[in-house]
Amino acid sequence: MSSKLVKKLLQQTNQPLDSTNEDESKRTEQSRKRKAAAKLSSVKDVTKEDTLQSHIQSILRLDHKIQTSASTVAQKSFARHSSNMKKNQTTSLKSKQSAIGVSNSRSSASSIQKRTHEPTFNKFKAREKREEDYYECVAKALKKTRKKRKTAED
């Protein structure tokens, strides 16, 4: 295209049409009216009773959720974990209390020999524990899928 044609085209597009200006002004007035109407309808008188009622409802929902999620299985799991922690703490306390300073005296040598042997690591027991943990994890996953299937069927 020649530069003259491009200039003419630009001049024609830069000049706004009268009909579009009128349409735009009508649209803006209509949108203002809609916005004002929406603001009026969205404003509500909120009383103290309404806020209290909504707060009570939220507390009741939370209480119901806690009751449904807490079960005997969770309590048993918590008891098991706490007993394991207590057992570990007692063994560590015993080892600290019975720990005798390292020295090269006759009395310390005889007391060390009197102590029973404490195994540090057993690879066979570790392998069994890993397998047991794996199967426990698989069992939990299967249990979850069964529950999901039951809820989906209902």
UniProtKB/TrEMBL annotation:
Annotated segments matching region Disordered: 1-50, 73-125
Protein name: Uncharacterized protein
Organism domain of life: Eukaryota
Compositionally biased tracts (Polar residues): 10-19, 73-113
